[in-house]
């Protein structure tokens, strides 16, 4: 496949022209770099039932347009996922509630239980991906340079561990007053620079703790 093993547990497949994840990729790899290729689809399971030991996965600068992470049950220790510079319009994180009486009814599957950093910058998202709250360990979410138009009350619901939210350079015109209200661990930055906000945000700002929080609001329409 042209991939290079840099050290014992690191595989580098960047700039190799691959269009799919090589089947011979070792499940013991801790870091995998598949950036700058022609990958159009990525399926976590993809016929592999064994758990991968991956902690850091780089899929940036490929051709991915739609992606579902709801089947990612074989990446239990993944901490960082880089999807920057693709063409992602839809990023699925939520799953339908099982029907009453089905075999999966009442069962809760923790999606990517160790994921701390999700980066989806420079894509084609028009809204915050639904289901971010299923990523129970998520601390940083980067959604800059997309086409997101508004932030709803439920977009960051149950994201109890979030510390950083990056929304710079979108098309945001409206933010629900309660969008960030229950994110008690926010402490570094809510980056809303270079959007289309036309009115001040007193209700939102009052709900945030300015003694430990940096908020970026420059280059908006006001």
UniProtKB/TrEMBL annotation:
<dbReference type="InterPro" id="IPR032675">
    <property type="entry name" value="LRR_dom_sf"/>
</dbReference>
<keyword id="KW-0677">Repeat</keyword>
<dbReference type="GO" id="GO:0005886">
    <property type="term" value="C:plasma membrane"/>
</dbReference>
<dbReference type="InterPro" id="IPR050541">
    <property type="entry name" value="LRR_TM_domain-containing"/>
</dbReference>
<dbReference type="Pfam" id="PF13855">
    <property type="entry name" value="LRR_8"/>
</dbReference>
<protein>
    <submittedName>
        <fullName>LRC66 protein</fullName>
    </submittedName>
</protein>
<dbReference type="InterPro" id="IPR001611">
    <property type="entry name" value="Leu-rich_rpt"/>
</dbReference>
<dbReference type="InterPro" id="IPR003591">
    <property type="entry name" value="Leu-rich_rpt_typical-subtyp"/>
</dbReference>
<keyword id="KW-0433">Leucine-rich repeat</keyword>
């Amino acid at each position: 496949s042209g991939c290079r093993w840099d050290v014992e547990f690191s595989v580098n497949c960047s700039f190799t022209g691959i269009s799919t994840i090589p089947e011979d990729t070792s499940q013991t790899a801790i870091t995998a770099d598949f950036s700058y290729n022609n990958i159009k689809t990525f399926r976590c399971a993809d016929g592999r039932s064994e758990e991968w030991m991956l902690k850091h996965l780089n899929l940036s600068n490929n051709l991915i347009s739609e992606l579902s992470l709801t089947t990612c049950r074989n990446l239990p220790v993944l901490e960082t996922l880089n999807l920057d510079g693709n063409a992602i319009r839809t990023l699925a994180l939520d799953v339908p509630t099982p029907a009453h009486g089905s075999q999966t009814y009442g069962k809760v599957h923790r999606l990517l239980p160790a994921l701390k950093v999700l980066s989806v910058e420079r894509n084609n998202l028009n809204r915050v991906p639904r289901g971010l709250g299923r990523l129970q360990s998520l601390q940083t979410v980067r959604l800059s340079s997309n086409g997101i138009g508004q932030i709803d009350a439920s977009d960051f619901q149950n994201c109890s561990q979030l510390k950083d939210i990056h929304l710079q350079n979108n098309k945001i015109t409206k933010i629900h007053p309660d969008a960030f209200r229950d994110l008690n661990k926010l402490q570094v930055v809510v980056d809303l620079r270079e959007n289309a906000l036309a009115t001040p945000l007193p209700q939102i700002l009052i709900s945030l703790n300015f003694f430990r929080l940096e908020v970026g609001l420059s280059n908006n329409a006001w």
